[in-house]
Amino acid sequence: MSVENVLEMRQVSKSFPGVKALKNVDFTVKKGTVHALMGENGAGKSTLMKILYGIYTPDEGEVIFKGSPYIVKSPIDAIKKGVSMIPQEISPVLNLTVASNVFLGKELTMGRGVKLINQKQMVQDTQTLFDELDIDIDPAVSMSKLSIANAQLVAIATAVSYNADLVIMDEPTSALTEKEIDKLYAIIRNLRDKKGLAVVYISHKLDEIFAICDEVTILRDGEYIGTDSIGNFTKERLISMMVGRSMKEFFHKEHADIGDVILEVKNLTLAKKFRDISFSLRKGEVLGVAGLMGAGRTELMEAIFGYRPAESGEIFLNGVQIQIKEPHDAIKNGIAFVTEDRKSTGIFPELSVKDNMVMPDIDNYLLRGLLDSKKINKDCQSQRTAIAIKTPSLEQLIKNLSGGNQQKVLISRWLLTTPEILILDEPTRGIDVGAKSEIHRLIGELAKMGKSIIMVSSEMPEILSMSDRIIVMHEGAYSGELLRDEATQEKILQLATGESL
Amino acid sequence: MSKYGIVVIFVALCIIMSIVSPAFRTMRNVTNVVRQVSIIGIVSMGVTFAIITGGIDLSSGSMIALISVVVASLSQNAVNPSQPLSFVIPIAFGIGVALVLGLLLGSVNGSLHAYGKIPPFIATLGMMTAARGAAALFTGGRPVGNLKDTFTYIGTGRIIGIPIPIWIYIIMGIIAHILLSRTKFGRHVFAIGGNEQAARICGINVEKTLVKVYAFAGLLTAVSAILLTARTSAGNPTYGVSYELDAIASTVIGGTSLSGGVGSIPFCVVGALIIGVLNNSMDLLSVNAYWQQIVKGVIIVVAVLIDARKQRRN
Fold this sequence. Notes:
The complex is a heterodimer.
Chain A: E1 5-16, E2 19-30, E3 34-38, H1 45-52, E4 60-65, E5 68-69, H2 75-81, E6 83-86, H3 98-102, E7 109-110, E8 116-117, H4 119-133, H5 148-161, E9 166-170, H6 178-195, E10 198-202, H7 206-212, E11 215-220, E12 223-229, H8 235-242, E13 261-270, E14 274-282, E15 286-291, H9 297-305, E16 312-317, E17 320-322, H10 327-332, E18 335-338, H11 342-346, H12 353-358, E19 366-367, E20 370-371, H13 373-386, H14 403-415, E21 421-425, H15 433-448, E22 452-456, H16 460-466, E23 469-474, E24 477-483, H17 489-496
Parallel strand pairs in A: 3-10, 3-11, 6-9, 9-10, 15-22, 15-23, 18-21, 21-22
Antiparallel strand pairs in A: 1-2, 1-4, 4-5, 7-8, 11-12, 13-14, 13-16, 16-17, 19-20, 23-24
Chain B: H1 5-20, H2 27-52, H3 60-73, H4 84-88, H5 91-114, H6 120-139, H7 149-156, E1 158-159, E2 162-163, H8 164-182, H9 184-194, H10 196-201, H11 206-232, H12 243-253, H13 265-284, H14 289-313
Antiparallel strand pairs in B: 1-2
Helix pairs in contact in B: 1-13, 2-8, 2-9, 2-11, 2-12, 2-13, 3-5, 3-6, 3-11, 5-6, 5-11, 7-11, 8-9, 9-11, 12-13, 12-14
């Protein structure tokens, strides 16, 4: 291998039950470069980096680091060998000082026997490190006093302090302002040029890639697409390499008649999450909402449903303004919400399938103040047959069902409330292909019945094949709208990364 | 099997004791055990509701003390004509005040937790300390005796040969069971304990439901306080010490998970009966009182260990 490559990953493959996450991926990083790793959600970037950081072991392939084979079983191994990672969401210990955070897990001690923490030395060493990196933070203050941006800088300094040869940065700018980003760039360049450090830089933001990276590797659907130096790329070429997938294996929504406007959202704003969002939804329409992670799509849906109400803006239902302060108000107005995260906001794991189904609509199942188990059984049974939920019985605890069937129970839950508007947030995330196409067919049928559907999805094929119309969000703002016939993956990605068409 | 394991243990315990000790299987002893269990048993049903929501109630013991002195002072015989007031107060008034007081104190617990966002452990710990102090303050630290016979009858009387406290335990058990398993409120209790965020998404008013849960627990505590006061013919600010712990123990032995979302009233009753039968058995076998405490402690820990293992398997 050539001396200038600090890392060579060759023909790396990794499978998880039901998915092949990486297929013979090559990834080579040169010493003293900032290397962008790009791809859509689910392209395999995180899996590849987790292999590098010792969280996963590859099924096949080899990794050469600094000229010798690299086998790591845990992040500790990886750090020892000279690879460190700054996760997307840093989690500092707020009650400790900055210096203690930098030295977390490798505290300097003094004395023999009972080893006391040598706070003074740690502060001094941290100061030296900060001076070297041109970071202006007092190492002796409590971590809780730092802004998110400064905490991010401390995380970077910490990663470097392990004498790393390669640092992985996963979306390092997601919490930073323009000015702070410039500071981050300066530090990265400093590390690259003076220390010969290699950086793997993961980001969805094209501007950043062009500003700071030297080389780019692109993955798509777990496969290696290509590597080139940044000078040879245009934004258009980057985007077309990231997408460009065949669409034929996906379900296509049948035609449904689209009626009048049923829901209208005007200037909805929730500070730091989304701002000034306006759109309308018609009867029988499937409205896709596209955007990258962190674009504020889920937060927008939560606001419409009253889970985390917006600070300002108006919502009209059939032309009449409605007030939605809590989910109960939304349900009363015929709005249903299948949330993004089944586990944390969806299922009641310890309750039965039928108890899970009737929860939001329980008022309809009362007979003289008591639950009417006959009616509950009847309605749940008909849902079970209608959308083919595979469960031994309605008494089965929902946690024992597969992900796809859990999702079907949750959709049934909301269909029982007989909504006019269904908000589906990532309706097929993490479920198998079979259940996925069944859910797609169901969405089509619901639209045909005249229900109006808002579907948030990060999967391009899903958005493109199911939506009558697509709105795209970028960093909390509305960035454009595409009709079914004009929408392409390239156009969506362009809008989602903040470019205009 | 694992779900009914506790019932099997209970039945086995009863069979073994019936063989070992002739005194155990007498009707007299059985009613005695159940009557003793009823006081804690009623409290533990309210605690079960709180624990299913993922909370806890530590205040029941002290609330028993406070409510007992209040109800006792409203149920005294007139000592002389200068005390005409207590003579005219019907016992129903004292009982009514006691129940309302239980509801109120419970609502305070619930509001501190739900709206004040204080962990229920701390909210009810505060109530535990304050209610004990209030009870002592109310009577100057003395017990309140000389209660009307009509009042003490609640604790000592029998209907068809069965002591009234047992009847009340049964009635409260049925009410609590229906409330938990067959009403909207009960489903909401499980929903909040199982997944609070999902409960909110389903349009459940989590705060209001939590206040109701702790108010209900307070109400049941008041019922227990009335029974204890009537049974002993006195109210006393020292009553109920560590009852909350016995109630929690009954609940946990009955399989209610401390992490919330799981539990049932019938099993809570079995849990309380196990503790009662165990106490009684050890008395009959003249086990040293200190050993009794150790045995009880071990059983509580083992019950939770089993629960924790079950959780891990999932």
